Amino acid sequence: MDRVDLAVVGGGVIGALIAREAVAAFPGATVAVLERGMVGQGASSRSAGVHFPRGGTERVRSMSAYSQGVWEQLAAELDLPIRTVDATVVSSGDVDAVSPVYVRLGDETVPAGDWAALPGARAWDLDGCHHADVQAVAGRVLAGLRDRVTVLEGTEVTELSSDGEYHRLALGPGRELLARRVVLAPGPWIAHPAWVELVAPLGLRVKKVVATHLEGAPAPGDPLVVFHDEDAFLLPLHERGHYLFSYTCDRWDVTPEDVGPVLEPSDLDDARAVLGRFAPGLVDRCTSGRVFCDAYSPHREPVVAELLPGLVFAGAANGSGYRLAPAIAAETVAALDLTPTGSTSPLLQRQT
């Protein structure tokens, strides 16, 4: 039977970063990443991939700052598909630096007086922002680890149990893997039968996430606009030739199987209603988009928690999995207490 020091369940961007952090912290450890589909194909493939150094709590702000440094390093090392973008934060509240509010979209200029929901709004610049192709990022991170990490795609964990020394992962008929440590990084698949009872005490819920696409090519220099009061943002996607508008969808307790890839008419209606409060002239451009879901924690901070000795859950990033993935990975590996055995896994022997 195959044995590894660490099994990471989930090959999204968080799982990929955990694998990277683990081999860096424990160079002699044998590590396997198990992904039921293809690497980065789940929630990561629908992500807007926006990073901005902000956060609603001190921990999230610290995690965001840490992650920014890691992404800058990895972007250079791995030639990741990360694109820097200027950013403006719009709010009706007090800000440190006050300037006239305007957002230029293509040949349109939207002055402060046109933001109907933000009387007296102000704006300020936000440094350190970028957006990324998250699916490609996850794939490229793991591609750089293939000589040290076994990546098993199309491999679902159907059962998970422990004998106190090893965790047994059933991978289908006649296939098992023993792991000294396991990290669950399932994204929104928190209700999978193999671990639903283990995860239940964390009090996580899954929320639908919607981002619509606005037709019209962004102009050079168009910024990312963050609408702080509404928890929404408008992102110019120059490489795709349109804008992305992300707003807060308030549909809870869904599953990935419920949501599917197709927008409902109500999704576009809701997005247009929110966008219309900021820029009525752009509503007619809102014609398509992307939809999925993510796991959210009760306190709106990512969760890194030991469920059993040597079994750690990592995720519930509240829609910010890409933005906070490096910090989540660092916290997860710090919680593992993993001392490599020094033995070579048959999985790695077959791979090399």
Summarize the structure in short.
The chain has nine helices and 20 strands. The chain has 352 residues and is of the alpha+beta class.
What does this structure look like?
This protein has helices spanning 13-25, 43-46, 58-78, 134-143, 196-199, 256-259, 265-278, 321-334, 346-351; strands at 2-9, 31-35, 50-51, 82-84, 87-91, 102-105, 108-111, 122-125, 130-132, 149-153, 159-162, 167-172, 175-184, 205-215, 224-227, 232-237, 242-247, 286-296, 303-308, 311-315. A hairpin with a 2-residue loop joins strand 19 and strand 20 (311-315). 26% of the residues lie in helices and 32% in strands. By secondary structure, it is an alpha+beta fold. The strands form four sheets. Strands 1, 2, 10, 11, 12, 13, 19 and 20 form an eight-stranded mixed β-sheet that branches. A seven-stranded mixed β-sheet has the order 8-5-15-16-17-14-18. It folds into two domains: 1-83 and 129-203 and 298-352, 3-Layer(bba) Sandwich (FAD/NAD(P)-binding domain); 87-127 and 205-296, 2-Layer Sandwich (D-Amino Acid Oxidase, Chain A, domain 2), CATH 3.30.9.10. Helix 3 (58-78) packs across helix 8 (321-334). The chain is globular, with a radius of gyration of 21 Å.
Key structural traits:
single chain; 352 residues; alpha+beta; FAD/NAD(P)-binding domain; D-Amino Acid Oxidase, Chain A, domain 2; 2 domains; 8-stranded mixed sheet; 7-stranded mixed sheet; 9 helices; 26% helix
